[in-house]
Structure formats: C-alpha cells, structure tokens
Amino acid sequence: MVEEIIVDELFRQRVKRFGIARIAKMSHCRYAVVRMAAIKAGIEIRRGRRPDKRKLARNARIRVLREKKKLYLHQIGEQVGVGRERVRQVLANTGGDPLSK
C-alpha cells in the first residue's frame, strides 16, 4: 500500500498548528510518510516539545520575586508552589541568581 500526502496550504497550516504526529494520526498515515512530505514541501520541523506557557509564566514570576522583592528561595517556592531546589534550578537556567552577582 503506497501512502501519498497531498501537500497544499491547508497541510502546511495543519503541520504548523498540530505537529506531524497528530497529523499522521488524523490522516491515518504513518508518521514517516507525513514527515517526509513535510520535508519535501520545505516545512520547518521543530524537534522537542513546545514551551509550556504556564511554566514560562511561573519562571518569570520566580525571577521577579527574587529580583524585586529579594525573597529567599524557600519563600519564593512557597508562593509559587515548588520546592526551594526547583527555584534554584529555574534561576540558574534563566541567567543565574540575580542576588548572588
């Protein structure tokens, strides 16, 4: 059985919106077939997960609490709902702890 994907503007929009795995499932095609069609059509394929908007907002709040209010890590963790160690990791991954500079 040869699977063929019709690459049109709707296909491009759906790949950008839903991703290859979901398109393959919706169209009952194999993932590899949809991926190859996207590559041949010149559609940029991202690897990995999309950033979670809630986590991005949480991380921004952690930075604000540390920079502006100068709270301790455990105090920030209590307000945000994560542990002290996670607060430290978020600060380290987003440019370092502003108070340790």
- Low-pLDDT segments, ≥5 res: none
Oligomer: single chain
Overall structural domain count? 2
| Overall outline | elongated
Strand count, sense and closure of the main sheet? none
Summed over residues and divided by their number, the pLDDT gives a mean of 87
Q: Report Rg.
A: 21 Å
How much helical structure, as a percent, in the residues?
55-70%
Give the count of helical stretches. 6
Order of helical and strand elements: HHHHHH
**Relative strand content:** under 5%
The number of strands is 0
Instruction: Calculate the terminal CA-CA distance, rounded to whole Å.
Output: 62 Å
Summing up helix and strand content along with how strands pair, one would put the structural category as mainly alpha
